[in-house]
Amino acid sequence: VVDFVNKAIAVTGRVLLGLFVFWQVFFLVTSSFVRVEEPLRKEAVNKWECLKRWFPAYSKGEDDFHKQLTDVQEKVLKRYATGTGQVQHWGLFAPDIGRVFAFPVVEVRWDDDHFVPGSVTTSPRDPVILPGYNEPEDINAFFRYRNFRFRKYETNFMPNPTHGADDKFDPKRWGGRISSSVQDDGKNMAAYLRWRWEMYKELNPDAPVPTQVILHMRGYFIPPPPGPDPWQFVYYGQYRVVRWLPWHIRQSGTDALEQYDPDNDRYESVP
Amino acid sequence: MTRVTPSGATHVAPEQAGKPHRPAAPAPGAGGVPDGELVGVQPWYPWPVSRWKWLTRPVRAERLAALRIALAALLLFDVLSSYLPNAANFYGEHSLGEPPLYKNLWNDEKARWNWSLLYGVQDHTYHYAGMIVWVVAISGLLVGFFTRPCSVAVWALSITFANLNDNVDNAGDIVRGIFLFYLMISPCGATWSVDAWLKKRSGPVYISPWPLRLILLQMVIIYWANGLHKVIGEDWQTGNSLYYVMGDATLSRWSKAQFSIPYPITRLLSWSVLVWEVTLPALLIGGVIVAKVMRHFGAGMERERWWRWPYYAGLTLPAIVLAFGVMFHLGIWVTMELGLFAPYMLCFYVPLLPWERLADRARRPAAHPASPATT
Prior knowledge:
The structure holds 2 protein chains of 2 kinds. Chain A is of the alpha+beta class. Chain A contains 6 helices and 6 strands. A 6-stranded antiparallel sheet of chain A has the order 2-1-3-4-5-6. In chain B, a hairpin with a 5-residue loop joins strand 1 and strand 2. Chains A and B meet through helix 1, helix 4, strand 1, helix 5 and helix 6 of A and helix 6, helix 7, helix 9, helix 10 and helix 11 of B.
């Protein structure tokens, strides 16, 4: 009996392992297919209009095949991928690359700039500028070899500058860019500003609580290839994004965050 | 336990008789050590997959062991240099990864299977404790001591921290998690490990090839999916992509104003990367098929020139294609600061190298006198 049970366990183990191998192949191929099929289909439909006429449902992704595929992806593959740590989102520097980039700059202030006079407790201290962790001292000469995780965090929440067809900074669209960024990443901005202030406070224990900690965007544009000779970046300047109010009673999420309205030169509470 | 004899036949121990599938025998070892031990569960496949030698013929365990050692060494460096010193900055109370910031990772219906052993924990003591356990487990994985429990702990803690703050991780960390998943469920400590030493394994060790094949499939899918995303991008079609990537001073290792790679070169590189990624599966499979077909139909024609060229071209094409991949990642590593993305990706190439030759070379002088082949 013991021999039979051992054999049964061994056989079951081998069958299960074989099934697992088949499952992994299915998971890898299907997950990647789903991710790649949609952009390729949309691109093909844009290029060849006739596809819309010939395959109306398929070209929109509304046919039964797509519905079932989406169902499997959402209900099974995604959950399995997140549960086992095998998320299949592959697209390094694809499909297109940005023309602009930005570094965060943190400004700690103790005055009542952009406040109703007398509404906050001020201190007679000069503003302090804290450059982003990832920003080199000289944009034209640096060698970077560390702090990539801080860089990753900063670039995740940092809105890139808006630029127009003339490749210059577009101030008209900047307000909209701030709103959408705060909507998506406002909580991370607040956490970052608070964290930067606390790091500063650790080094300067005598510093009183500031009236505001402002996040600025320092933006650059990469000139079109082959670029100027000698090669150089186009500096867009420094623009306000949000401010965090350390004295605010409620500090959860974006409660203590105010986004900048560049059209009216004022801060507004985050909706 | 299964023994592989010099004739190539597989000796199955009595306790394994009656199993649904008996793996095909491995080829004699590259170092001329034909006897060996087969470690780990051999998966059962239905016909015709069970006849596919690529998926069924056991391979030397050194290939998986090399991956285990390379990955564990990298991860140990990663944890000691970037995670552990910043544990209080990345996780927990008043950090960049305060639990409420990442509620979406847990509340999203689609990501319902997200999990973390430290979910919702604010106290940094637990994060530091987790990091220390992580370091100990990685060290165990590195030397192959209690390999299985260590690999499970390393994988679990890797996911635990990744799901606490996903804004400090990149694609390299996802690749790392995938490797750890495979190491956890495969016999990665079968050789080159303290466990193997304690079990007194002296001869060649073989494992079923499934983990290596799935890892290879994962690698091909990563590149192909990347290539297909790129092929619709205007920047890649015009060859401008690497010009802009290297011009992004948030990522680049040095300033483009300081040292700018000439535009025609970046253009050529952009196109070559695009073509390589899109055609990778075809080139790998094509090379193997050409070599196999030439070998199958060209028996006795080895001296004919018309036969030799396509045969050797087919044989070397996959190696050339993969060498391009290594150069590609080394290029990324040199020009961009993406953390350990490039080294983690290079781990895909580690099991493709013939590590067994090292083991055989080390074993040969001592093993020869007693080797069954010479007695």
